[in-house]
Amino acid sequence: MSLHTPLCDLLHIKYPIIQAGMGWDKEGLTTPPALVAAVSNAGGLGCIGGSSIRPEVIRERIRAVRQLTDKPFGVDITLPKMEDVRIPDPDEVRKEIQEKFPKHAKFNDELIPRLGLTPQPPDRKSWVKTPAATREQLRVILEEKVPILIIGLGDTAEVVPLAHERGMLVMALAGAVKHALSHARKGADVIIAQGYEAGGHTGTIGNFPLIPQIVDAVRPKPVVAAGGISDGRGVAAALALGAVGVWCGTTFLVTREGGINPIYKKQILNGSSEDFVRTAYTSGHFARHYRSDTIKAWMASGLDAMPTPYQGNAMDEVRRAAEAANRVDVLHVPGGQVAGMLSEERNNVPAKEIVDRMVSEASQILNNLRAQFVGA
Predict the structure, then answer these.
(1) Residue 10: what pLDDT?
(2) What is the C-alpha separation between 165 and 249, in angstroms, rounded?
(3) Distance in angstroms (rounded) separating the CA atoms of residues 299 and 281
(4) By the 8 A CB rule, do 159 and 151 touch?
């Protein structure tokens, strides 16, 4: 049995394996061009995680990928709500935290030295993702006519016609049926059903109930499964639930081509599924990250996470102090519960080997099932 689904024909790829467009770092090291191209060259679909990257860097990444592959690839960005991007001067935010959340301010001020760190001043030259900046990101992607645009968060109503005018396809993530239906009605070509198990921003419904519900709700739109998939067993399970492909993030973070800090790779490879927790302490929005010393301290504080942008500002103070001291070990990589399936032997394995292994295992499982039931 060949691992070929309708998704392969739609996206012009050989295998229905997609490397998630993870974009939590501002340098784009989560999905560097080498990783994106390696997955696409292996027959899957590589994706640039562009959400946190400056528009001009997104253009550089797109052109770098095109130097490495002539195969299709995608770019993933988020379209945050207006209220989620109000990011005034960090000193102003800090003052508001002290006024509105004095217990949180005191806790964070005490946490930094408790971690062995020294407070650092804000980086006022840092790029900020505002509505205008997001539109500039989108403009670059449209100008470059990337084959596939992926919307990881936000409303697809405006972007779908713009992409379709340029011959581009649109994929959109959904963590609940209502979100999937909204994307489908607005013309998204592929719906990515992302379960609770996934890393980064994720919902509250596990994949086994979520995938078939979304498949039924948006039929005949193709559905891709995301969350908790790192091998052929996950691929076969996703296909059995009605998906036509898989979206995998955490498993590609630890590949040879992945560009994240080796300490973050260790968190994934040495961490258990329980070590990756869904919490709002990183930004004010729920997301799944490694349970670092910083996260554990906030969890033990008894304090609820502050809303955006306050919680993110407080966490950014810790991040600046940690990076200045070369102590990113106290910070946390976004990752899924599938990290519990990844051991040291997966460290720095070529991305092509991951794709090949997933395809081989899934094909063998599906062949065995067919033989088992045909012969019954």
Answers:
(1) 98
(2) 29
(3) 8
(4) yes
What six digits make up the tokens of 83? 């209220």
Residues with Cβ within 8 Å of 66's Cβ and at least 6 positions away in sequence, in order, are none
Nearest to 239 by CA among 102, 90, 367: 367
* Lookup result for tokens 């081989």: 360
Q: Measuring CA to CA, which residue among 217, 248, 221 is closest to residue 235? A: 248
Instruction: Please tell me the distance from the alpha carbon of residue 91 to that of residue 73, in angstroms, as a whole number.
Output: 40
Kindly provide the residue ranges of all beta strands, DSSP E only, lying in 86-241, ordered along the sequence. Answer: 148-153, 169-174, 190-194, 200-201, 223-226
d(CA 188, CA 170): 5
In angstroms, the CA 85 to CA 77 distance is: 14
pLDDT along the chain (376 residues), means of 10: 91 98 85 98 98 94 98 93 59 92 97 97 77 90 98 92 98 97 98 97 96 98 98 97 98 96 96 97 95 98 94 94 96 97 91 97 93 73
| pLDDT score of 23 | 84
What is the model's pLDDT at position 87?
A: 54
Length of the chain counted residue by residue = 376
Q: Where are the beta strands (DSSP E) in the chain?
A: 17-19, 46-49, 73-78, 148-153, 169-174, 190-194, 200-201, 223-226, 245-248, 276-279, 287-290
What are the structure tokens assigned to 261, written together?
């800090």
Closest CA relative to residue 155, chosen from 199, 194, 195, 185: 185
pLDDT digits (tens, 9 = 90+) for 38-52: 999 999 999 999 999
Pairing of strands 245-248, 17-19: parallel
Which of 41, 162, 117, 42 shows the shortest CA–CA distance to 325?
Answer: 117
Rounded CA gap, 36 and 174, in Å?
A: 22
Sign of CA dihedral 207, 215, 74, 17: positive
